[in-house]
């Protein structure tokens, strides 16, 4: 019987059994697409990553990312967690890892810088592989129905609900306050209807809700629902956080800006996560979006095939 080693990590946290769970297959050579999907479904985490030799030897690895139902082109916490796991290895496909890694993914090349403390890898910072994409606008009624909220719960003063992406698309909407955010519940039938109205080739309709205050505009509380991917709620969504940070900075009147946001997610699930987003804007356009966070190892084992 063949076995495949795996490592699970908790991402965007310094505490074990908090943050967002990720399973990493550090050497996925020999696995078929069907086996990768079956493994991702078996874990039931929001994502599982499969690491393969790079197509270009100048890069570190090729990384494939699967949800319980499909493969996605990019995601934030899988990249941070995968970098954390690989950075602790003696070698990656015959090469000794350094602090800078490069992952080949469907969305493009992902640049990674490992984070260290006292010589030990503690996490990673990645750069989103694609420029900010905005649109289409999403009806308020659609968002409200998906979240089991009334339309009055949404705050449209800063922007209307919209789909945004820096590698993976999400519908994003602001709600009035933390209390309202905590009351949100995904309505699967409404998500089905939204998916029909706003279809995607690479993924299904996912919703990222957030709230913030005037006093602390860059301290954000968020939740993400993707029930059509069998992810009722995600404790930390780096790709959505990066897209939101990029979008909010793009709305600033300043032509140039360097902003750091901290997004807290997963608190309503008992898996609090802290995601740091860095956005650089120059000459009126967002130039770079980075996602950073800490990780801790949770489990090691093997999968029988």
TrEMBL record:
Check the record and name the Pfam families matching this protein. PhzC-PhzF
Highest taxon listed in the record's lineage: Bacteria
Check the record and name the InterPro entries matching this protein: Phenazine_PhzF-like
Family note: Belongs to the PhzF family.
Q: What NCBIfam families would the database entry show?
A: PhzF_family (TIGR00654)
State the protein's name: PhzF family phenazine biosynthesis protein
Q: Which organism is it from?
A: Sinorhizobium numidicum
**Lineage of the source organism?**
Bacteria, Pseudomonadati, Pseudomonadota, Alphaproteobacteria, Hyphomicrobiales
């Amino acid at each position: 019987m063949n076995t495949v080693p795996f490592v699970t990590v908790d991402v965007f946290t310094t505490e074990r059994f908090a943050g967002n769970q990720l399973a990493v297959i550090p050497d996925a050579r020999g696995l078929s697409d069907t086996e990768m999907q079956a493994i991702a479904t078996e874990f039931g985490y929001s994502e599982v990553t499969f690491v393969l030799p790079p197509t270009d030897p100048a890069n570190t690895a090729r990384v494939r990312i699967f949800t319980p139902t499909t493969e996605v082109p990019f995601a934030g916490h899988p990249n941070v967690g995968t970098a954390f796991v690989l950075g602790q290895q003696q070698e990656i496909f015959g090469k000794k890892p350094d602090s800078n890694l490069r992952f080949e993914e469907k969305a493009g090349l992902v640049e990674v810088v490992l984070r260290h403390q006292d010589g030990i890898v503690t996490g990673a910072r990645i750069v989103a592989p694609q420029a900010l994409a905005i649109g289409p606008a999403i009806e308020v009624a659609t968002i409200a129905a998906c979240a089991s909220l009334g339309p009055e719960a949404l705050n449209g003063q800063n922007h209307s609900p919209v789909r945004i992406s820096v590698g993976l698309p999400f519908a994003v909407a602001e709600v009035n306050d933390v209390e309202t955010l905590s009351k949100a519940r995904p309505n699967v039938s409404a998500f089905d209807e939204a998916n029909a109205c706003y279809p995607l080739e690479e993924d299904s309709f996912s919703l990222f809700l957030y709230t913030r205050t005037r006093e602390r505009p860059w301290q954000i509380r968020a939740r993400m629902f993707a029930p059509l991917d069998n992810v009722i709620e995600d404790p930390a969504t780096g790709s959505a956080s990066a897209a939101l940070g990029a979008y909010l900075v793009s709305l600033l009147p300043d032509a140039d800006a360097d902003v750091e946001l901290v997004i807290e997610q997963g608190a309503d699930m008992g898996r609090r996560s802290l995601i740091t987003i860095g956005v650089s804007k120059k000459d009126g356009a967002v130039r770079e979006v980075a996602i950073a966070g800490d990780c801790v190892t949770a489990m090691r084992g093997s999968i029988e095939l």
